[in-house]
């Protein structure tokens, strides 16, 4: 029905016409205001931290989710600006998404597990690069900025997953370093430098912080490192901080070697209180994969029989049984490593594929303020 209704023989007078013009102007003004508000909301959510809890899929801050919601806003369905920034191209087995997973020794668990999970789709080609005892505080031992610059050029990944911080945190504890504002400022510069390298070319970065550690003093250092990294990541529109500390903590926020998942006790940490068991690697990989899947619709585009093997960069280390003390109750099938046709890489295949079904709320990543 029109805004104003007239009798059969009535003609619109000037007052009626003026009212119509005023109403149209108000409607246009309201549309502009709403559009501006939506744009502001996107700015607020674009750099959110990836946290865990509630719902089966990642969601954006400000959305409302029911416990079994499948329609809550995700990275790819937030707003036109968000879709442009985060949506991946169409994926195909002959032109797969290039995914690079790098970092310290924990990447030796996350890389193969996430590589197997994503590569099974047939539309993702995973690479992983694990450097034992590395961090951002000691480039004299391993220079991540220089190495990553080379790898980004060589592999041109479209999505990067980078896990770092455990060695930087334990380094604080071992040296008694003063974690004052000066130290934090220096470490923030290291994170900023690394992010700029990983993001170059408008690629998405999932920065995974260190999980909680068993040793209390080392864990204090990790908390400082994670805090600094998460604050820096918030300033980067294409980067998201994945809170692994919370993911591997118990309900009281304390260290635990196992968690109850789908009614079963699963051992996620090795006896050293630092590294991940094969199940721990799968657990973290499932959480990160959900974020990538929400962004790139990997499962929706998957092609049966076209699985891609994860390619290990030469010089990196597979972390598994035999590398460090294993859990007293290991529950995953060990990984196997085979040499690829390339002289500079090897491909790694896990013998068991993690369950991709619905997970408990404690395992489900989400974007929150």
Topology:
Blueprint: H1 14-45, E1 49-52, H2 80-86, E2 97-103, H3 107-119, E3 124-130, H4 144-155, E4 159-163, H5 166-175, H6 181-199, E5 204-208, H7 216-233, E6 239-242, H8 244-247, E7 258-261, E8 264-267, H9 278-296, H10 298-301, E9 310-313, E10 335-339, E11 345-350, E12 365-368
Parallel strand pairs: 1-6, 2-3, 2-4, 3-9, 4-5, 5-6
Antiparallel strand pairs: 1-12, 7-8, 9-11, 10-11
Describe the protein.
37% of the residues lie in helices and 16% in strands. The chain is an alpha/beta fold. The chain has one domain (96-358): Rossmann fold (3-Layer(aba) Sandwich), CATH 3.40.50.1110. It has a ten-stranded mixed beta sheet, with helices on both faces. It has a two-stranded antiparallel ribbon with strand order 7-8. Helix 5 crosses helix 7 (216-233) and helix 6 crosses helix 7 (216-233).
| Biggest β-sheet: strands ordered side by side in the sheet | 10-11-9-3-2-4-5-6-1-12
Number of helices: 10
Q: Quick one: how many beta strands?
A: 12
In CATH terms, the superfamily is SGNH hydrolase
Please name the CATH architecture. Answer: 3-Layer(aba) Sandwich
Shape: globular
Average residue-wise pLDDT: 74
Tell me roughly what share of residues is in helical segments. Answer: 25-40%
Main sheet overview = 10 strands, mixed
Relative strand content: 15-25%
By secondary-structure content and strand pairing, the structural class works out as alpha/beta
What fold name stands as the CATH topology? Rossmann fold
> N-to-C SSE series?
HEHEHEHEHHEHEHEEHHEEEE
CATH class: Alpha Beta
Total individual domains: 1
């Amino acid at each position: 029905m029109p805004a104003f209704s007239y009798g059969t023989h009535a003609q619109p007078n000037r007052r009626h016409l003026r009212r119509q013009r005023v109403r149209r102007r108000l409607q246009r003004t309201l549309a502009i205001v709403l559009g501006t508000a939506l744009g502001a909301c996107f700015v607020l959510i674009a750099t959110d931290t990836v946290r865990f809890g509630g719902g089966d899929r990642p969601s954006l801050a400000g959305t409302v989710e029911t416990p079994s919601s499948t329609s809550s806003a995700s990275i790819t369905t937030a707003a036109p600006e968000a879709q442009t920034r985060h949506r991946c191209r169409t994926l195909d087995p002959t032109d797969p998404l290039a995914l690079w997973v790098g970092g310290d020794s924990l990447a030796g668990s996350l890389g193969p597990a996430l590589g197997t999970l994503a590569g099974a789709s047939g539309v993702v080609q995973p690479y992983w690069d694990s450097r034992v005892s590395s961090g951002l505080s000691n480039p004299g031992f391993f220079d991540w900025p220089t190495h990553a610059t080379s790898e980004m050029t060589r592999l041109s990944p479209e999505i990067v997953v980078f896990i770092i911080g455990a060695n930087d945190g334990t380094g604080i504890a071992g040296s008694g370093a003063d974690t004052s504002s000066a130290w934090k400022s220096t470490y923030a510069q290291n994170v900023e430098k690394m992010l700029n390298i990983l993001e170059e070319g408008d690629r998405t970065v999932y920065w995974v912080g260190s999980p909680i550690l068993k040793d209390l003093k080392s864990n204090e250092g990790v908390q400082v490192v994670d805090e600094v990294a998460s604050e820096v990541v918030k300033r980067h529109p294409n980067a998201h901080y994945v809170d692994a500390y919370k993911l591997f903590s118990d309900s009281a926020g304390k260290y635990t070697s196992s968690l109850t998942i789908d009614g079963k006790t699963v051992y996620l940490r090795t006896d050293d209180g630092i590294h991940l068991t094969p199940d721990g690697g799968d657990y973290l990989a499932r959480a990160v994969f959900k974020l990538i899947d929400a962004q790139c619709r990997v499962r929706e585009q998957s092609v049966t029989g076209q699985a891609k093997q994860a390619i290990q960069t030469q010089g990196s280390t597979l972390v598994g049984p035999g590398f460090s003390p294993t859990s007293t109750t290991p529950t995953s099938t060990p990984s196997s490593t085979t040499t690829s046709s390339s002289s500079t890489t090897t491909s790694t295949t896990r013998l068991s594929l993690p369950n991709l079904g619905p997970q408990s709320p404690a395992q489900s990543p989400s974007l929150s303020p």
